[in-house]
């Protein structure tokens, strides 16, 4: 990168938050409740999209059931999400980036209600200068939520980095010419992530922290 890094934008599920298993379990519960077939692989593949897009992709033949399926999914997720939490090292990484003067933001496929709940759960709202949820803007990979974050912070795309575990995250960033880093410990494979030309791919949070601090340090030297 040739521009100073002023802002790091994180995806939530599968990047900061260890919730992929619970998402898959809740989607399968909702599908079974309404007698719809759904494999683990298919449920996992849509993590990162907004909920309406999830329903359209997974249950295209029963649009009349989408509302009820999504409600069942959300209720099951909330009732059974006691085990989901940040990946080990995430809190330390976020605090160190903040201490280095870097602004942090979230761009997620979660609903605003769901994002607010997990921000409160992790007591992390004050770590982020702004957040965007799919329910209040367009779903990934449309870059609108990134454009809104950039407009709010006054930071140019080339001065930010998007971090995510799915093709939707990296494609969204590519669509707005934003540098990006993939993480391999979430949903999509390294091969899939590489196809979106990330700066790098981190295989755990410790490696991600090291990469991000390197870019922040480079920006301080500019």
Describe the structure.
Keywords: Hydrolase. There is one protein chain. By secondary structure, the protein is an alpha/beta fold. It has 2 domains: 7-18 and 85-221, HAD superfamily/HAD-like (Rossmann fold, 3-Layer(aba) Sandwich), CATH 3.40.50.1000; 20-80. The protein is built from 10 helices and 6 strands; from the N terminus they run βαααααβαβαβαβαβα. The protein has a 6-stranded parallel sheet, sandwiched between helices. β5, α9 and β6 form a beta-alpha-beta unit. The chain is globular, with a radius of gyration of 17 Å. 41% of the residues are buried.
CATH H-level homologous superfamily name of the largest domain: HAD superfamily/HAD-like
The rounded Rg comes to 17 Å
Main beta-sheet annotation: 6 strands, parallel
Overall shape: it is globular
Unreliable segments of 5+ consecutive residues: none
How many strands?
6
Elements, N to C (H/E): EHHHHHEHEHEHEHEH
In CATH terms, what is the architecture of the largest domain?
A: 3-Layer(aba) Sandwich
Order of adjacent strands in the largest pleated sheet: 3-2-1-4-5-6
